[in-house]
Amino acid sequence: MRMKSIVVFWLLLSLAFLSSFSLAQSSEDDTYKADRQKAMALFDQNKYLDALPLFEELANKNPKDDGVLLGLATGLVSKAAAIKDANESPKLMVRARELLLKAQQLGNKAPLLLNLLQMIPQDGVMKYSDNAAVDGALHEAEADFAKRDFDGAIKAYSKALELDPKNYAATLFIGDSYFAKNDFSNAGEWYEKASQIDPDKETPYRYYSDMLTKNGEMDKARTKAIQAVVAEPYNAVTWRGLQQWAHSNHVQLIHVRVNTPAAVSQDGKENINITLDPNQSSDAMAVWLVYSGVKAGWHKDEFKKHYPSESQYRHSLAEEAEALTAAAGVLVGNQKSEKKSSVPKEPDLALLLKLSQTGMIEPYVLLNAADEGIAQDYDGYRAKNREKLEQYLSQFVTPPTPAK
Question: Residue 180: which residues within 8 A CB-CB, separation 6 or more?
Answer without folding.
Answer: 46, 145, 148, 150
